[in-house]
């Protein structure tokens, strides 16, 4: 038997080595871009927080100057008027968003609720991947979904797809399968969020454009996720057998997606409600039963419109929508502080969870390795069968 010269050649070794170096460099560049995006988003939110704090400090100073000016001119200030000014100063001081005035225990609860709210989307992502022929582990799907969240702070949103697809590839999920699954999960999440916002704001005295935007986003995001349309798109993109797609992309997948997405939004709304109560306010807050639907509608719509804006993390857009909706219940100033606090908390929670998932992936030896050709072939064969 004559040995195949290709098997004896060492040319494949440099090629594999070069590919490995290229992959490492790509991962390094992606990591740097994501970290920079997170830092810029955090820096912007901190500046906004400081600006709002400065406004309250200016109000306090103005009241103090009013009393001082009256004293210097020898003008008599009635006891009641002086007491009213001092009381107003005291209320404003208690509303200053200094660390000592924040309810940190409530912030911790809000962070935990938000972290829980991210899990249902991971369940939906895995459900979608399985429907399209992949078979990732639960842990891989959760890691992919979680790490992907930090990609939204990079302009264009494409980094979300890159990060999630990269993690899912560990379990042999093909890039096209990852792309369609991420598309389905994202658009279902946005569609459900828009519908929740539209229903919740229907009876509220909010600007008409808010309700119209919610309905429009619900239709625009929900339409492509309807099984007949999704099957058509998947058939064009993947060139898969229509009969197979009809069995995999059915109404059960659609309604499961709605259920997981709704659960996620309910937790995110609860998180934002608790966060609002953690930020000091000069005015009393409405009861939780009243605040929860308004806060949920506000955060749903803010995140949906922020996503549609394609700005990194919906910068600026979220704050505008949140203050517009929350202003009817808690006041514009408090609403803006709550919006900024939400951005900071979301960034912190997503960064911490992404870091933990990254550590898990680094320590997990059972993940799919791109350079393992034999295992790649066997996985693809199993998926096809």
TrEMBL record:
It holds the Pfam family LPG_synthase_TM. It is found in: Cell membrane. This is Flippase-like domain-containing protein. It is a multi-pass membrane protein. Keywords: Cell membrane, Membrane, Transmembrane, Transmembrane helix. One of its GO terms (cellular component) is plasma membrane. The chain crosses the membrane at residues 25-46, 104-125, 182-203, 209-233, 253-279, 291-313, 320-338. The keyword RNA-binding does not apply. It comes from the Bacteria. InterPro entries: L-PG_synthase/AglD.
């Amino acid at each position: 038997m004559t040995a195949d010269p290709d098997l004896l050649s060492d040319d494949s070794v440099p090629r594999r080595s070069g590919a490995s170096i290229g992959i490492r460099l790509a991962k390094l560049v992606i990591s740097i871009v994501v970290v920079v995006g997170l830092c810029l988003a955090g820096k912007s939110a901190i500046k906004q927080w400081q600006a709002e704090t400065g406004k309250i400090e200016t109000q306090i100073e103005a009241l103090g100057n009013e009393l001082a000016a009256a004293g210097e001119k020898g003008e008599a200030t009635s006891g009641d008027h002086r007491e009213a000014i001092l009381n107003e100063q005291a209320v404003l001081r208690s509303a200053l968003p200094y660390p000592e005035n924040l309810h940190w225990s409530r912030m911790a609860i809000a962070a935990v609720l938000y972290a829980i709210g991210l899990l249902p989307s991971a369940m939906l992502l895995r459900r979608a991947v399985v429907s399209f022929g992949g078979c990732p582990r639960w842990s891989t799907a959760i890691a992919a979904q979680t790490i992907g969240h930090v990609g939204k702070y990079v302009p264009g949103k494409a980094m979300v797809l890159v990060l999630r697809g990269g993690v899912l590839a560990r379990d042999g999920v093909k890039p096209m399968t990852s792309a369609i699954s991420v598309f389905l999960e994202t658009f279902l999440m946005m569609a459900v969020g828009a519908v929740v916002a539209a229903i919740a704001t229907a009876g509220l005295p909010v600007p008409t454009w808010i309700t119209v935007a919610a309905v429009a986003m619900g239709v625009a995001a929900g339409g492509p996720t309807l099984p007949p349309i999704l099957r058509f798109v998947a058939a064009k993109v993947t060139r898969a057998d229509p009969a197979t797609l009809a069995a995999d992309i059915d109404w059960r997948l659609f309604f499961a997606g709605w259920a997981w997405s709704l659960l996620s939004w309910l937790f995110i709304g609860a998180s934002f409600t608790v966060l609002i109560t953690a930020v000091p306010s000069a005015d009393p807050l409405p009861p939780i039963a009243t605040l929860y639907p308004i806060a949920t509608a506000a955060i749903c719509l803010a995140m949906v419109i922020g996503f549609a804006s394609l700005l990194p993390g919906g910068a600026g857009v979220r704050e505008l929508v949140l203050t517009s909706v929350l202003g009817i219940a808690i006041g514009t100033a408090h609403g803006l502080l709550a919006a900024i606090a939400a951005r900071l908390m979301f960034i912190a929670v997503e960064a911490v969870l992404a870091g933990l998932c990254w550590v898990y992936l680094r320590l997990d030896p059972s993940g799919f390795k791109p350079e393992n050709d034999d295992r790649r072939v066997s996985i693809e064969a199993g998926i096809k069968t």
